[in-house]
Amino acid sequence: MLQRGLGVLLHLTSLPSAHGVGDLGPEAHAFASWLAEAGAGVWQMLPLAPTEPGRGNSPYNSSSTFAGNPLLISPELLAQDGLLTPEDLAAAPEFPAGRVDYEAAWRWRGELLRRAGRRALDQFSLRSEIERFARREAAWLEDYCLFACIARDQGMRLWSQWPWELRDRQPQALDGARERLARELDQERFQQWAFDCQWRGLRARCQELGVTLLGDMPIYVDQQSADVWAHPELFKLDGAKSPWVVAGVPPDYFSATGQRWGNPVYDWEAHRREGFAWWSRRLDRHLELFDLVRVDHFRGLVAYWEIPALEPTAINGKWVPAPGLELFKTLARRHPALPIVAEDLGLIDAEVREVKRLLGLPGMAILMFAFGEDNPANPYLPHNHRPDLLAYTGTHDNNTLRGWLAQEADPATKDRIRRYLGRQRLDDAELAQAMLRLVLASVADLAVLPVQDILGLGAEARMNTPSQRDGNWTWRLQPGQLGPDQAQALWEMAGVYGRR
Asked: Is residue 87 annotated as a catalytic residue, yes or no?
């Protein structure tokens, strides 16, 4: 599935934009061209699902696993299509440089989307195109649009607190909501159509450039989502449609009390009874968007940490078996090559490794985790890598290399890195550059570098701190920060290590 190559990790929201947050527009196309110039054949990004300021703006905490994020729709591309005017775009407020103010971005872009939606829906040809799209994607689109509209109409209350006839999806109540919210439903369909059009344009450009798109599928979906509302029988919910157990992970590197994510967990017997049909639709959708898909928290599909919903932390959870092998064998009937990467980080046991081996899935190795006291046996040390790996300096959940060296790596860890390199007099900047080269030199099929590490940025450029609710997902590139000089340097390094 993988060939020796180089990938770069950068989420769309981190691109420059005059409209407050990165999107699918000109800067995304320019970044795809930059990747080709740098010899990087893979662009890895985070989930594309809708995000909301009220839920921390996390792409892993979404109201739909199928829908695209309207925030990523490019105003510039809407203007190219005649749905916005130059005057519309010229009225953009001044946004903070280098960070995303999600509330401000949503206010501004929401108004632009409403304006573009009215113009699109007033044109017979575009309305017909949107209706064709809606029929094609009806299996998920109608539930998502209806959920989004009812949620706003209900003041964003949890759907389990809606009037019972809406909570329980009584046909007469849903028909009434469709009639009452017809205009809002049209707008939601327009936004998903616009996202789809712009995404297809970016994906086609990446294909022209020979850039493979590696996406990300969170293991769980959010309780406040169209997925759980439309399919409550597939989750462990009580009679009031609220979770009685929730997902998370036990105490680990990131948190002494573990991570209580709060997502509802799957009723795997219900999934078995339907032949894993929901999962099949989910993977189909992700492979419509991406060439490869990273399955987040893969170990939770072999055994997962289940926490009583009333527990405030993840400490008092327990491991519960999950049918990962059976699930993926079923999915392989539709996708024999299983273009999937297993995020196999954290507490990985022999059973998880065996399931991954039987399925032939590549895993991940994080260089920041390699220099503990268990050297030279640490599996993340480059001399212990295998070809069927994606090797990273760090992921979106880690500090940047420079930030990690400055804030988290103690003197003993730095000494182990220097001894591994055979170079004793390296400062933090030199250590970070040497660690980039360690990843590139690995036998792992794919070396993936976050843009922040390519640029040598510090902790201020960190994307996410797990178990911390506020301040995540906001880092952005400055215009011109990533240019031909960086592309040339990466091109040369990729050549040295046989990665282009």
From this structure: no
Please indicate, yes or no, if residue 377 is contained in any of the structural domains: no
- CATH number (domain holding residue 113): 3.20.20.80
- Alpha helices (H) along 154-211: 164-167, 171-180, 182-209
Residue 369, domain member (yes or no): no
Among 23, 27, 227, 343, which one carries the catalytic annotation?
343
- How many residues in the chain? 500
Q: Is residue 386 part of a domain?
A: no
Active-site residue flag, 410: no
Q: How far apart, in whole angstroms, are the C-alpha atoms of residue 491 and residue 37? A: 7
Closest alpha carbon to 468 in 402, 399, 407: 399
Instruction: Supply 334's token pair.
Output: 């539709």
Can you give the residue range of the structural domain that contains 19? 5-362+445-491
Choosing from 188, 196, 296, 344, which is the catalytic residue?
A: 296
Q: Specify whether 37 is catalytic.
A: no
- Helix residue ranges, H only, 369-423: 401-407, 411-421
Give the chain's domain count: 1
Q: Which one of the listed residues 37, 184, 397, 428 is annotated catalytic?
A: 397
The answer to whether position 327 is within a domain reads yes
Using left for φ > 0, alpha for ψ between -120 and 50, and beta otherwise, residue 242 falls in beta
Per-residue pLDDT for the chain (500 aa), expressed as one digit of tens each? Answer: 789 999 999 999 999 999 999 999 999 999 999 999 999 999 999 999 999 888 889 999 999 999 999 999 999 999 999 999 999 999 999 999 899 999 999 999 999 999 999 999 999 999 999 999 999 999 999 999 999 999 999 998 999 999 999 999 999 999 999 999 999 999 999 999 999 999 999 999 999 999 999 999 999 999 999 999 999 999 999 999 999 999 999 987 768 899 899 999 999 999 999 999 999 999 999 999 999 999 999 999 999 999 999 999 999 999 999 999 999 999 999 999 999 999 999 889 999 999 999 999 999 999 999 999 999 999 999 999 999 999 999 999 999 999 999 999 999 999 999 999 999 889 999 999 999 999 999 999 999 999 999 999 999 999 999 878 788 999 999 999 999 999 999 999 999 999 99
Both ends of the chain: CA-CA distance in Å?
Answer: 16
pTM over cut 0.90:
yes
